[in-house]
Design the sequence.
């Protein structure tokens, strides 16, 4: 039970501290909204094609091709084969503000063990804190103490004044990486272990990627099973599967 509470915590916290927004109960309706957005964008691009030439026209044709691939993906129920076109359209449409808003609204209330949902980038994983506290304190106190410690370090990650990063050069490009020589991180590792330090470092890396200035936690469509961003194909397949399950449940006596 305690393990489940720790596993669910980041997503539960994500839901509780956001302003309430409409939740789409019918996943097919969500996909219809996505399709409508893409169709509208396709019409806009089609109109622009008549007045463009050269590089601009080629760019618009490429965009049109990507959107047509996504429409095919929707028609096929998220079961289209992997291709360069599908991957490109994934990147283009999953990053579209209107599409993201619809998908995040529809998925933000999913809870474990849902394989696809919404992750707050920069949220600290509390499970390593729980494991560390089980080793260091009485079992009945470990969950409470772990949650308190995790919340404390989440606030540290959100603090713009704390920047435990250093710049290194990779293939001629300057890149910011975690500075494990930072005094706070070194103290954390000494007190609670490497796994806890890694959890905080991972949250810091995400925060630095998504909002390095404001340090707010940006919602991201996430594949929890694989521990990475969810592809458009995965989100569509998940929503359709959920819709089918609801239909079957309604047919049961």
Sequence:
């Amino acid at each position: 039970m305690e393990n489940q509470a720790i596993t669910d915590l980041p997503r539960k916290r994500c839901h509780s501290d956001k302003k309430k927004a409409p939740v789409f109960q019918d996943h097919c309706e969500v996909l219809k909204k996505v399709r409508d957005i893409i169709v509208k964008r396709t019409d806009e691009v089609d109109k622009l094609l008549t007045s463009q030439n050269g590089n601009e026209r080629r760019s618009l044709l490429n965009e049109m091709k990507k959107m047509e691939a996504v429409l095919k993906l929707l028609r096929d129920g998220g079961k289209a084969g992997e291709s360069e076109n599908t991957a490109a359209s994934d990147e283009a449409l999953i990053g579209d503000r209107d599409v993201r808003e619809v998908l995040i609204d529809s998925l933000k209330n999913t809870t474990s063990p849902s394989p696809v949902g919404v992750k707050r980038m920069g949220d600290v994983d509390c499970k390593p804190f729980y494991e560390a506290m089980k080793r260091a304190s009485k079992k009945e106190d470990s969950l409470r103490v772990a949650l308190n410690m995790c919340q404390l370090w989440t606030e540290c990650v959100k603090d713009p004044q704390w920047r435990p990063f250093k710049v290194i050069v990779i293939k001629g490009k300057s890149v910011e990486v975690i500075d494990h020589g930072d005094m706070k991180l070194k103290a954390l590792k000494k007190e609670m272990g490497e796994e806890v330090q890694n959890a905080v470092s991972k949250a810091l890396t995400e925060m630095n990627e998504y909002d390095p200035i404001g340090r707010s936690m940006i919602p991201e469509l996430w594949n929890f099973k694989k521990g990475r961003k969810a592809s458009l194909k995965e989100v569509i397949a998940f929503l359709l599967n959920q819709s089918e399950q609801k239909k079957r449940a309604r047919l049961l006596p």
About this structure: The chain has two domains: 22-77+94-116+227-251, 126-216. The longest helix spans residues 27-49. Residues 22-77+94-116+227-251 form one domain.
